[in-house]
Specification:
434 Repressor (Amino-terminal Domain), 2 domains, 10 helices, single chain
Length: 145
């Protein structure tokens, strides 16, 4: 994952680490850890950053260098994300167990993501996108259009 992009996105908002932390009701050290790669930014916060700057998740994650502005803000919708994960998995003809093995997690975790009971970890989303050459924006897109 391209952690420098997190700093770049913050700077697009013309915010210091402290200001961003305050805006997200977090500590400055949390934001700093995201920017250095010590911690991975949770998907809900990544989506907030992308919505604020109107950039794609793919750009923020370093999956794309396209800085085109997105036209609609997205909401974090675990059920929609789960549906897209299942569609992708079925299109690639892989089982939940195979995907779990790839991500070094359990089949029940994949099942929980696909059912929308829990939200996928940003690092897992990134790994899936890289491995299967799919857009994080598509996986997280909850627009019916």
């Amino acid at each position: 994952m391209n952690f420098e992009r997190i700093r770049f996105v913050r700077e697009m908002l013309d915010l210091s680490g402290r200001q961003l932390a305050k805006k997200l009701n977090l500590t400055k050290s949390t934001v700093s850890r995201w920017e250095t790669g010590e911690k991975v930014i949770p998907l809900k916060h990544l989506i907030t950053l992308c919505n604020e700057t109107m950039i794609s998740l793919d750009f923020a994650l370093g999956l794309s260098n396209d800085r085109s502005k997105i036209t609609e803000k997205r909401e974090l919708d675990p059920i929609w994300i789960g549906k897209h994960l299942k569609i992708l998995r079925e299109q690639k003809k892989i089982t939940q167990s195979e995907l779990a093995k790839l991500l070094n997690t359990s089949q029940s975790t994949i099942s929980s993501y696909e059912s929308g009971k829990t939200t996928i970890l940003t690092a897992f989303l990134y790994s899936i996108c890289k491995r299967y050459k799919v857009s994080a924006d598509w996986i997280c897109d909850n627009n019916e259009s």
